[in-house]
Amino acid sequence: MFNDLASPATLVATRRSAKPRDMVAPGPDAAQLRRILSAAMRVPDHGKLAPWRFVVIDQDRRDAFAAMLQQAWRAQHDASDRPDIAAIDQFAHQAPVLVVVLSTPAEAKIPAWEQQLSAGAACMMMLTAAHAEGFVGSWLTGWASYSPPVAAALGHPDAAIAGFLFFGSPGAALEERPRPAYDSIVSHW
After folding, report:
1. Mind listing the domains of the chain with CATH numbers?
2. DSSP characters over 128-141
């Protein structure tokens, strides 16, 4: 839990992604997940449009989710491009908690780009909030993120999938990845 961290700066500086296939139980319970999703709803949202939707794929729906992904794969690829059923099944079943974030820009004077950025901010806020709750998270995309049949099956045929967010406890040591050098990214004008 965040209370164990020294400061908000420590919270964001220590957040790292974990591999979903390495995540184990426990994951966030219903109250913790509600806090994580509620935090994501507090991201910048020009025009107060809430241009995102969150679909929780409950554990008892993971088999159906895997079957839907397999069907979507087949619908989008020719018969010679055989799906890796084991990989699709692993994707659907990994980590204790799975939330799909959909970008749902509204017809408004607010540019779609700003609304899409808000969906990305919601994903990042979920990762940070999960870390504050004492869990690890990961934000993945891949072919299913760009699949209209997957978005339609999730109830949002006109949406773009911003990402699949996985949450749980670390089942393996987290690895630090190389980060860019500060001076190679930051400049002053």
Report:
1. 20-76+84-172 (3.40.109.10)
2. HHHHHTT-EEEEE-
DSSP state letters, 69-101:
HHHHHHHHS-TTS---HHHHHHHHH-SSEEEEE
Over residues 60-97, the pLDDT tens digits come to: 999 999 999 999 998 888 877 777 889 999 999 999 99
pLDDT grade for 7, boundaries at 50, 70 and 90: confident
Residue type, 50: A
Q: Could you tell me which of 141, 59, 57 has the C-alpha nearest to residue 99?
A: 57
Query: CA-to-CA distance for 73 and 165, rounded, in angstroms?
Result: 20
Are the C-beta atoms of residues 100 and 156 closer than 8 Å to each other? Answer: no
- pLDDT score for 3: 52
